[in-house]
Amino acid sequence: RYRGANPDNYVTFNGEPWRIIGIIDGKVKLIRDESIGKYSWDSSDSNTNSGWGINEWSQADLMKLLNPGYENEKNGDSVTGSLYWNGASGKCYSNSRNSTTACDFSQNTSNSKGLSKEAQSMIDRSTWYLGEFNDSLKATITLQNITKLMDAERGTEVISNPNDNVSRTTKWRGYVGLMYPSDYAQATNSESCDTDLYNCDNEEVDSCKSNNWIYKSSYTQWTMSPTSDYAYGVWRVLDTGCVASDFVTGTNAVRPVINLKSSVKVTGNGTGASNLPYQLG
Asked: Minimal CA–CA distance to 121: which of 175, 172, 58?
C-alpha cells in the first residue's frame, strides 16, 4: 500500500489521473484522483425508510450509476443507470425521496467523464466486501489496530430486522466500487499518526489528514461500508479528516475505485509522480 501525504502512486487510467491504493487480494487497486461529482449513495420513495434510502450496496442507486447492466434504470423518463460506466448523461440521485439532478459523464466532460471502452476492458470483475459495523466498534479502532477494522469490513455483521425488509449482503461481485474506511486509514503515515479516526474531536486528526494522500479538504467522500446502527447509514471520510456515518441520501463526493485485470501491465518510463505518472497497457 501507498502511505503518506503525497506518495508517487499516480497512474494514467481512462486518460486521466488515478492513484494506486496498493495490491489488495493480488490485484492492483486504483482510486480516481478526484471526485466525479456529489451524489446520493441511495435514495427511495417515501414508502421506504421515509425516503431516506437503503444501505445495501448491491441494490444502491450509486452502484447502478457506476456499473454496467443498468441501462434500463429510470426515474421518470430519464435514464439513471450505468451512466458513468457508459460515459453518458442523464439523471443522478441527489437527496431523499428519489430526488435527482442532471449529470453528464460524456467523454468531453473532463472533470467527470465516464469510462472509455479501453478503460472498461482493463477492469476486473471482483468480489467487494459489505460487512457492517457500528458506533460501538468504531471507538476501539485505531491505526495500530487496523486489522479489527478490516475484519469488520469483511465480516458478516448486518443490521438486524431493518424496517425496509431488504436482505443485507456481505459480498458483492462487480466492477466499480468505492474505497473502504480501512483504505483511508492505511493511506496515513502511521509513524506520525496514532489516533482514533472516528473521534472527530481528537486534535490528532489534523496530523492524520495532513499525512494522508486520500484525504481531500474540499469535500466529504463516500465509502462503501454501511453502518449497522440504522438502515440508511453509510460511513464517510469527512472534509475535516475524521470518519463518520451519514444518511445514504446525503450528497457526498464519489471517487470510483476499481481493480485492474492481471493482464494489465505498467508500461513506459513513468515514475508515479504527478507530473510523470505510471502508464498502463
From this structure: 175
